[in-house]
Amino acid sequence: MTNDSTIYYDDDANDARLENKTVAVLGYGSQGHAHAQNLAESGVDVVVGLRESSSSRKAAEADGLRVATPKEAASQSNIVSVLVPDTVQPAVYDDIESELEAGDTLQFAHGFNIHYGQIEPPEDVDVTMVAPKSPGHLVRRNYQADEGTPGLLAIYQDASGEAKAEALAYAKAIGCTRAGVVETSFQEETETDLFGEQAVLCGGVTELIKMGYETLVDAGYSPEMAYFECLNEMKLIVDLLYEGGLGEMWDSVSDTAEYGGLTRGEVVVDDHARERMEQVLEEVQNGEFAREWILENQAGRPGYRQKRQAEKSHEIEDVGAELRDLFAWADEDESADEEKREVPADD
Ligand SMILES: NC(=O)C1=CN([C@@H]2O[C@H](COP(=O)(O)OP(=O)(O)OC[C@H]3O[C@@H](n4cnc5c(N)ncnc54)[C@H](OP(=O)(O)O)[C@@H]3O)[C@@H](O)[C@H]2O)C=CC1
Ligand SMILES: CC[C@](O)(C(C)=O)C(=O)O
Ligand SMILES: [Mg+2]
Ligand SMILES: [Mg+2]
């Protein structure tokens, strides 16, 4: 981040920008349920847009929210927050496009479809992004605990001249300006988000865990020891990194771990890994990943299903399930897990 990045807080946002406006939240999954409930509790008029057959309808209604079809919701609203999965957004957009009027806002939590040209909004609507840098369940939990969730704000199209002020009010209403909202662009958010989840947060970490586990088990150590060491303890280390960066983690582990980590970490994640990271970034930047993902969806997701199945079948998952049943820490997270399970899988 450069020193001139702008960060906005609660005092920079004016709640009145959302007065007399209706927000249609399309989708009631991870982000959708959090935005809709936080907006409503902040006093904003909300209508949730879900298809007639939607398995999420019951949950939204049980949470006291008004529910309509995406098209009806868009026609009743001034701001349409598109929080269905990225892959279905273009089809949902085609359905609601006719309901967008000059001066309305199309709001996103991720820039994929705008940045890669899958959605091309009319010139007379504002196109904004408020993207919490967190899974939706934490956005909701933090709001309920009077805490904030850091987020990003970007303006792709400012037809009204008011796009930023309105997006800031939206960010405040879902709790993001309590923590701070960094201004960025659709391009930067999309490319960094995709790179981060592929190379580091989701893809990189899971491969590192599995490879560490397999190395220990192949060398004759017990699967339980390998699970604890390579997966379970990851949370303890990540909590320290989250609280105080690399420094707090290194301060907290033993000198032996610090010396071993500082000298051996770079043996594993070496220049070869850096080259591969650069390759992953290039495929995000030149649109190759986006094209692959769009085609994969058009083909009915055969490769995705296969990869998912292989991941579920990895021995570490069985070992982990057994251990989590036997130890007390599983109970602590039970309510969070229950909450997560309420979100329907996409297939
Ligand atoms: N997951 C996260 O924490 C984060 C997500 N984002 C972004 O937020 C956006 C939403 O992602 P996320 O919350 O994960 O989405 P989810 O997968 O959780 O969305 C599921 C919701 O979308 C509805 N839905 C699915 N397909 C359709 C369809 N064809 N028509 C209408 N509704 C449909 C589902 O209802 P139904 O019962 O009808 O299937 C359900 O309510 C994305 O742009 C994502 O990149 C950004 C930051 C983090
Ligand atoms: C890290 C995954 C993420 O980018 C997120 C929760 O921010 C996503 O797309 O879900
Ligand atoms: Mg992300
Ligand atoms: Mg993402």
UniProtKB/TrEMBL annotation:
EC identifiers of the protein: 1.1.1.86
Q: Where is the KARI N-terminal Rossmann domain?
A: 5-184
Span of domain KARI C-terminal knotted:
185-330
What's the name of the protein? Answer: Ketol-acid reductoisomerase (NADP(+))
Q: Which residues bind NADP(+)?
A: 28-31, 51, 54, 56, 136
Which sequence ranges form a coiled-coil region, renumbered to this chain? none
One term of GO molecular function: ketol-acid reductoisomerase activity
Q: Does the keyword Amino-acid biosynthesis apply?
A: yes
Binding of Mg(2+) 2: at which residues?
193, 229, 233
Specify which residues bind substrate according to the UniProt entry for this protein. 254
Protein purpose = Involved in the biosynthesis of branched-chain amino acids (BCAA). Catalyzes an alkyl-migration followed by a ketol-acid reduction of (S)-2-acetolactate (S2AL) to yield (R)-2,3-dihydroxy-isovalerate. In the isomerase reaction, S2AL is rearranged via a Mg-dependent methyl migration to produce 3-hydroxy-3-methyl-2-ketobutyrate (HMKB). In the reductase reaction, this 2-ketoacid undergoes a metal-dependent reduction by NADPH to yield (R)-2,3-dihydroxy-isovalerate.
Reactions mediated catalytically: (2R,3R)-2,3-dihydroxy-3-methylpentanoate + NADP(+) = (S)-2-ethyl-2-hydroxy-3-oxobutanoate + NADPH + H(+); (2R)-2,3-dihydroxy-3-methylbutanoate + NAD(+) = (2S)-2-acetolactate + NADH + H(+); (2R)-2,3-dihydroxy-3-methylbutanoate + NADP(+) = (2S)-2-acetolactate + NADPH + H(+)
Q: Which cofactor does it need?
A: Mg(2+)
Q: Which gene encodes it?
A: ilvC
State the InterPro entries in the record: 6-PGluconate_DH-like_C_sf (IPR008927), KARI (IPR013023), KARI_C (IPR000506), KARI_N (IPR013116), KARI_prok (IPR014359), NAD(P)-bd_dom_sf (IPR036291)
| Gene3D superfamilies xrefs | 6.10.240.10, NAD(P)-binding Rossmann-like Domain
State which residue ranges cross the membrane: none
One Pfam match:
KARI_N
Q: Which family does it belong to?
A: Belongs to the ketol-acid reductoisomerase family.
> Cofactor comment in the record?
Binds 2 magnesium ions per subunit.
Q: Does the keyword Transmembrane apply?
A: no
